[in-house]
Structure formats: structure tokens, C-alpha cells
Specification:
GO terms for molecular function: diphosphomevalonate decarboxylase activity. This protein has 211 residues and is of the alpha+beta class. The chain has helices at residues 85-95, 119-135, 139-149, 205-209, and strands at 5-11, 14-20, 22-26, 31-33, 38-39, 43-47, 54-61, 71-74, 77-79, 103-109, 161-164, 177-181. 21% of the residues lie in helices and 28% in strands.
Length: 211
């Protein structure tokens, strides 16, 4: 059980990161603020191993691109960036931390996307970590970019057992993730994933939470 690890140091305005999924042990359901992805309650999860279920994402800063739109490639397919609200929100959130140019984002999953295996948690944590490395963001800023894209992705920023705080505690008012126990806290633990379908979920988690 590990958190995101950089598989390539940034070179020529490019950085690649690999990030795992996480599985909630105590789930959150519902949001106080949909736009900012602030959860209704705190949650607790375990981060899985990057050797099996992961997203590999490469982010390039297109500093010389005349067009302002970014480029998104997911599992080899070009995706219109304006039709992907989550990545658009994540990119926009990074602008307040110094992003001034469009991006080229290429992402590959080792497992079916949007099929109930928390693909957004690995995808947006990988994106946030790679972009954060390029922009020299601090951990709090990386957390924000990941969370804006997908709430649960901020839990994949750390290995082991992770809490995502809902921000209701006066002594800790920010909604951020933190590692509670390290990966070796429970060495006997095994997670078994059985894939019964590779099809898309009929209702996304984000939509379901608003019902």
C-alpha cells in the first residue's frame, strides 16, 4: 500500500506520475459544497498497491501553444476538454497557484474506468501530483487541485490509511487529507478485487450524491 510515486523527474516542462486507487472504509456521502467538493462528513480509506490498480499520467506545460485550450488523452483516446467538467475544474483551480499556460494531459488506467473501482481517485491524484511537481506546489495546494477534480482523490495522495477531514472541527477547519497510519500498520491485510463488469456505471457517484 503506497501513495503516488514519481516515475520520472520533470524534464522539458513534462512530468509523469503513477498513482493508486483508494478504497473507503468509512465513506462520505453528500457534499456541503458541490463546487469545491467539500464533503458532508469525514471519511477514512486504505490506499492500494500501485503494482495492480493505478493511473499513469503525464502532464506537459504547453508554454508555446498559441491556443488556450488544453489537450486531454485518456486510454489513447482524445477527449474534448470542454466536455470533461472535472478536469476543467481541476485545471482552473491550479490557475490560482500559478498555472498560466494550457496543458497536455495523457492518462492511462490499468483497470476499467468509471466502473466502480475509484478510477477518479487515482486519475486526479496522479494529475495533481504531476502538475504540482511542475509548478512547485506545496502539499496543501496539491491537495486542493486533486480534491476539486475528484473529492476522494485527495486520499490517494498518501499511502497506508488516510482520513479526509470534512472541515467541521474548529481546531482543524480545512478540508484536507492526512495519513493516519503508515502502509505497514496492518501487514496481514489483503484486498481482493473481483471484476464482474468493465462497463460504465449507470449513475456516477457525483450524481448519486445529489439525489
Amino acid at each position: 500500500r503506497t501513495g503516488p510515486s514519481y516515475i520520472m523527474e520533470p524534464q522539458n516542462n513534462s512530468c509523469t506520475c503513477i498513482s493508486p486507487i483508494n478504497i473507503a472504509i468509512i465513506k462520505y456521502w453528500g457534499k456541503k459544497n458541490v463546487e469545491q467538493n467539500i464533503p458532508l462528513n469525514s471519511s477514512f480509506s486504505v490506499t492500494l498497491d500501485t503494482e495492480q490498480l493505478f493511473t499513469k499520467t503525464t502532464v506537459d506545460l504547453l508554454t508555446n501553444r498559441k491556443k488556450k485550450n488544453s489537450i486531454l488523452i485518456v486510454n489513447g483516446q482524445n477527449i474534448r476538454i470542454d466536455q470533461h467538467s472535472k478536469i476543467t475544474k481541476a485545471i482552473n483551480s491550479a490557475r490560482k497557484f500559478g498555472l498560466t499556460c494550457p496543458l497536455r494531459i495523457e492518462s492511462i488506467n490499468s483497470f476499467p474506468s468509471s466502473a466502480g473501482l475509484a478510477s477518479s481517485s487515482s486519475a486526479f491524484s496522479a494529475f495533481a501530483c504531476a502538475l504540482g511537481r511542475l509548478l512547485n506546489l506545496n502539499p496543501r495546494e496539491v491537495d486542493v487541485v486533486a480534491r476539486i477534480g475528484s473529492g476522494s482523490s485527495c486520499r490517494s495522495l498518501y499511502g497506508g490509511f488516510v482520513e479526509w477531514n470534512d472541515g467541521s472541527d474548529p481546531s482543524d477547519p480545512e478540508t484536507v487529507s492526512r495519513q493516519v497510519f503508515p502502509p505497514d500498520q496492518w501487514p496481514e491485510l489483503r484486498c481482493i478485487v473481483v471484476q464482474v463488469s468493465s462497463g460504465l456505471k449507470s449513475v456516477s457517484s457525483s450524481v448519486a450524491m445529489q439525489r
